[in-house]
Amino acid sequence: MGPRAFGSANGMSGSLCQTQSKAMSSRIAGFCCVRCGANYPTDIEIDSKGCPSCQLSAPANLQPVYKQSRSSGQPQRHDPQGSLWRHASSLPCTFEDAVSLGEGDTPLLQAPTIGQALGVPNLFIKDEGRNPTWSHKDRFSTVAVSVARNQGARVIATASSGNAGASLAAYAARAGLECIVATFAGTAGPMLSQIRKYGAVVLPLVNKMDRWALLAEAASRLGWFVTSPCHSPVVGSHPIGIEGYKTMAYEIVEQSNGEVPDWCVMPVCYGDALSGLWLGFKELFALGHIDRLPKLVAAEVHGSLSDALARGVDRLDEQEMLFETLAVSIGTPRSTYQALKALRESSGRAVPVNNDSLLDLQKQLARSEGIFAELASVTPFAAIHELRKQEVISANDRVVAVVTASGLKDLDRSPDASETHQTFQTIEDAWQSLSSRQNMLG
Ligand SMILES: [Zn+2]
User: What is the pLDDT averaged over residues 336-344?
Assistant: First the structure.
């Protein structure tokens, strides 16, 4: 396939594609900066650089502004398939135009055993591993791909070779669109296989940063709809997709019979989901559906949010990466202003999490609650443990931990060393192997 085949519909250029977006995104009145509040028209180029005014001082993402006040958070329409599109009236796209695989509506499970162990018996787990591609990224992809298709884009692209790439590839396949996943040489593992299975074109580049340059050029020259960051410093992913994460807040409140958790804790990389979660809670609050807001906690790896919170600044510094994290999905040296804002506004916290406890927590969660989570997805439990120890989180607090992805996603990083793979020659040998497990033989 040549460049033409990867252009937008009818070979439209990027600017034509944007012009069309004006008509298509009828719900969106424009965009505004999450930091300075500056307003921009609907046809502003979403080029991953964020707000033009803030770019030099403290780069910040944009967010869509809707045309009229909507009754956010309350399901408007019965979706017979069951999906987050029950909340279509709060999203940038209609139910009828949605590209859906039945995402969202994941369970909020009480987790008393691990909760007790962490000193927070009122612990609940929002299990996002139940989404169609086994991660929370489906909330982003369903909205981004729906809008992209409506705008006439023919090619969707991302620089993620992890959960976001796998999710985007699936939704592009569902929508009948081409998907390009720019990755870097040496990327391996189950997620890359997953991306390929959905039929996405994988472009491995030796230099990690070249991925962004390639996507930025393709967006401006060929009209590719790029959902991931493709500019440094990162401000976050495409603002349209981030809207999908608001539905996590709607569901948490709905599943708690209107009760608001004291704390919501989640793994944070660029903070798209944290930012969307916060937007969702704020919408519910503004509309009077809830009477208070939760405090948010970012479980991070290299500490850029903790550092910016401590220093009271808006511009996040790139942190030195002192170790190779097992939580690869969130291993960025620098998060974003949108995440910082959500933490500040909610009087929340950021907790750096190292590798020490991750494998144990993964095992503990699986064995005590029956939930097998990706290694990045168990970082919230390490953060809860730390904040409980510091008595920031109280024993009686209601805490929601967002488990963002399934443990099958990074199985190559968490082999079970205790497994012997022994095969027994006789039934007697098998009985013999159970002799130490008296609780099974009584
Ligand atoms: Zn700004």
Answer: 98
